[in-house]
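Cross-check.
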Amino acid sequence: MSAETAAATDDDYGGLLTAFPYAFRQSDSRLFRLYTVVGGLFALLLGIVFTFAAIVSISQSAGLATGGTDAFVRTFVVIVGFVVVVPVVAPVLLVARHHRREGSKPAYDRALAVAGLVYLLSLYLLLVASIPESFVLDGETVTRPPATGLFAPVLSLLYAIPPLGSPAIPIAVAVAGWLTHRRYR
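Predicted model, tokenized:
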């Protein structure tokens, strides 16, 4: 490998997978480097979960009539997976692009790392808020645990959100992440 090729390989990236190591190497922010690792692992985990969800959706509708509701459900699983994973990888892609085009700006890196970590937290809050008051699991009716302890006020607030309204939490955080990018770039 020539010196020019080695320099180009070390100083650039060529897509989603190579943006993670590039952004990690180029950033001076420890918080952003932490997010690069954590966000990459979460993106991988979410990708695997949604891949299995798509496989299960396809296998459960095998042999049924093509088109209609079955095709919609399969497509919906893929679209939801994409919509959930994109805000996880977006801070890394935006920082990699920023470093390649404009150079280092630690405040930008830190701000997007915080936005990414808050988005990951919002996915957890989405899960908590979407728990129905009671549901059937393996033939047994289960009720959601009451809000107690140190986080009781937060849990009460999350439980007050209707399950269909729970996606508003990560959507609002993703929009805030985009506004953070616009503010600090």
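The chain has one domain: 3-130+166-184. The chain is about 75% helix and 5% strand. Passed to J.P. for a second look.
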